[in-house]
């Protein structure tokens, strides 16, 4: 069995408000990524401050927390071979203006402050973010019937 890697992906409030949840999930499903967990929630300021703790000294930190707390988000865990790297490639650059056409941000975003989606940028941050947003029992471990059609 191929070594699987998990990552944390969150559709931000602007992505939810623009009714892009299904479209974004479709991108991941069509690529063959394996959904392990998902929840729809209004993230607390405490959770968001923990999530973005690495950015706490940046001038945009208070605005980022306020924006992420302004509406519901869809928190997800996806799994596939090289998931973190592949997830980042699918999301596009943090600044949508630098994103390639066909990436989620390249298709759906205009401004960096409203870039509709978050994805872990390393395996270490993925592990931290997954444990922050999900309890271990909320992660569903199953083999997709498409597994043998995706991997050699």
Automatic annotation (TrEMBL):
SUPFAM superfamilies tied to this protein: Nucleoside diphosphate kinase, NDK
Reported cofactor(s): Mg(2+)
Coiled-coil region(s): none
Catalytic activity: a 2'-deoxyribonucleoside 5'-diphosphate + ATP = a 2'-deoxyribonucleoside 5'-triphosphate + ADP; a ribonucleoside 5'-diphosphate + ATP = a ribonucleoside 5'-triphosphate + ADP; ATP + protein L-histidine = ADP + protein N-phospho-L-histidine
Nucleoside diphosphate kinase-like domain span: 4-141
Listed SMART domains: NDK
Alphabetized Pfam families for the sequence: NDK
Name this polypeptide is given: nucleoside-diphosphate kinase
Organism for this UniProt entry: Mustela putorius furo
Encoding gene (name): LOC101670952
């Amino acid at each position: 069995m191929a070594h699987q890697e998990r990552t944390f992906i969150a559709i931000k409030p602007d992505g939810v408000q623009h009714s892009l949840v299904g479209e974004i999930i479709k991108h991941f499903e069509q690529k063959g990524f394996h959904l392990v967990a998902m929840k729809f929630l209004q993230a607390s300021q405490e959770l968001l401050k923990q999530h973005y703790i690495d950015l706490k000294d940046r001038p945009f930190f208070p605005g980022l927390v306020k924006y992420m707390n302004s509406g519901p988000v869809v928190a997800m865990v996806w799994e596939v071979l090289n998931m973190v790297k592949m997830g980042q490639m699918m999301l596009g650059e943090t600044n949508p203006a630098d994103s390639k056409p066909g990436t989620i941000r390249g298709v759906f975003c205009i401004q960096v402050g409203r870039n509709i989606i978050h994805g872990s940028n390393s395996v270490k941050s993925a592990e931290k973010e997954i444990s922050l947003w999900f309890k271990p029992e909320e992660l569903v471990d199953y083999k997709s019937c498409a597994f043998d059609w995706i991997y050699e």
